Amino acid sequence: MIDKKILLKAFRLMCTAKAMTDTYEANRQICKYVHATSRGHEVIQLATAFQLSPCDYISPYYRDESILLGLGFSPYTLMLQLLAKGEDIFTGGREYYSHPNYRGVDKPNIIHQSSATGMQAIPTTGIAQGLQYLEFINSPLYKKGKDGELPVVICSLGDACLTEGEVSEAFQFAVLKKLPIIYLVQDNGWGISVSADEARTMNASEFAQGFKGLQRISIDGSDFVQSYEVMKSVVEKVRENRQPFLVHAKVPLLAHHTSGVRKEFYRSADDLASHAAQDPLPKLKKQLLDLGIGENDLNEIESVAKTEVAQQFANAVAAAEPDPAKVEQHVFVPTPVTEEKGERSPSGNEKVLMVDAALFAIREIMEDNPEAVLYGQDVGRRLGGVFREAATLAEQFGDHRVFNTAIQEAYIIGSTVGMSATGVKPIVEVQFGDYIYPGINQLSTEVSKSCYLSCGKFPVQTVIRVPVGAYGGGGPYHSGCVESLLLSIKGIMIAYPANAADMKGLMKAAFLDPNPVIMLEHKGLYWSKVPGTEDAKSVEPSRDYVLPLGKANIILSADEEKIINGETCCIITYGMGVYWAKEAAKKFDKQVEIVDLRTLFPLDEDLIFSTVKKHGKCLVLTEEQENNSFAEALAGRISKECFRFLDAPVEVLGALNLPAVPMNILLEKAMLPNAEKVAVIINKLLDY
User: Fold this and answer.
1) Residue 241: how many other CB atoms lie within 10 Å
2) Which among 268, 293, 318 is the end of a domain?
3) Are residues 283 and 257 in the same domain?
4) Span 466-479, average pLDDT
5) Residue 79 is inside which H or E element, if any?
6) pLDDT digits (tens, 9 = 90+) for 375-422
7) Which tens digits make up the pLDDT trace of 67-114?
8) Of 35, 248, 256, 478, which one is the catalytic site residue?
9) How many domains does the chain have?
10) For the chain, what percentages of helix, strand and coil (3-state, to nearest 5) are there?
11) Residue 666's domain is classified under what CATH number?
12) Does 478 participate in catalysis according to the annotation?
């Protein structure tokens, strides 16, 4: 039998949740931001929250205010987010109601929560993945409960999101790796105006049957006693057995979908009545009355809840708004790597290929950092990457640290959010730039926004390796450049090395950076097999060599006298463009200066602008299709900043504006820039 104290606590918090819903509804003009409440879902949410310890993790979804109440957050705290106030402890007024994040010692940890339906499944599964790894290596970062209990992870989901492919990716990885995670699916039969029977052929429990190893149970989520006993049992099982579980809780939806989508817009009177009949609050009240609790006592609890909610709402309304001057804070957290250190070209070291420089950098990183792991498609023991960019690493560090994943770009990228939150430092790989698109949702929705929307509590420390570029017959799906797409996503950093020394230095800096960094690695430079790219090989830097992100490099200087005489131009480029530019410059006697950007974000605008002002003539060179590219945007910035110093329009050269790189080598050559095309533009600039 459940202790009466627990039942009374649940009743008090349910009364609080109802009073909050009623208050918001009565003050719609004040509660102007869109919000959802937990009415109808309170029982399963509280029953879940009551099982958790500070060592655990939970990802609530946008209807889970009762979970937050059950964890110990006050109505006032939640209301500050409802009203987007400056003292909102979760996001500082940047996020919707019931989008929490929390890092502390008194409650379970909560990573940043987004509005995108079902997207939390992958990052939250990444938490369980991280905890499993820390437990395996006996890391001091692995925290147990005060009684020695092992941590569990709970991912709360609405039933409509189970049709999302990324939820299936999470389930697949969880059962494959036997992760300690509980998926709590709250099924109210609606997905805004889409009913369950027009969207799904099965409920969550039936769907979970297809994932071998995912234990499951269906319950009445409006019955507190059943919900509490089931969640207690499930949490205890997962703590002990360390395997995934799905709880499918059938619940009524008593409030609106959100304040902006009213229930009367699309639901029939019969439907509303049938849900109201399952209201969990009178159910629990009756159970308490049957146990001998006086009705006057229960009515007093309701009255006190209303009074407290009213007072806390008034306090929240009176709270200060956010300071607009701080709107740009927390996009990134500071990096420890601010200057170039170590020996770039130690005497006695041999030249290495770019692909090996990356391999050696990661090997040293993993030797020095037990929290570092590497995973992605085909990077494991048998192959070590399709470009051999991870060769021998699994043999040295073990399959628990270097391993293959399924074809799941969304999981590869999104899991880094949860992994990073536990203290694990993931290095992951998307096999080709052309295949990053399935992962863009996670990259944009979860990875890039986590630091900003958590006010710096949950930056995502990860390195995402992405081989890119054409290299001679790679064809339409293995030759693409994707920097403009990635640069449109704010909150991530992007490096693009063009030689082995930069590769190693930037890889080390990217790993040490507490923010997400994408390493764009040109496949045509990996092995220096493309004619003219021999200089991509360089002396291997020292073990402690780091190259800060955001520092461009002048790799070819023009003659000073010719600069003074106005007989020079500069080329701003990166990646393969460096080698087209260097080859073209051979035709001009010290009249061309070349800047290798090395990092596309942050961008070394100081060096770019000072170089352009010095020459007055500039070409921005890229391998991407030219129209609407990063290169064109950069040319626009240069034109604005350097306008008074320009002697000619800023030129841009990129690939032809075709949907894909053709397979045939002659067609590929016709599409891409090359030294001859660059030379034509240099001549044009020098003629001004």
Assistant:
1) 12
2) 293
3) yes
4) 94
5) helix 75-82
6) 999 999 988 888 888 899 999 999 999 999 999 999 999 999 999 999
7) 999 999 999 999 999 999 999 999 999 999 999 999 999 999 999 999
8) 478
9) 3
10) 40, 15, 45
11) 3.40.50.920
12) yes
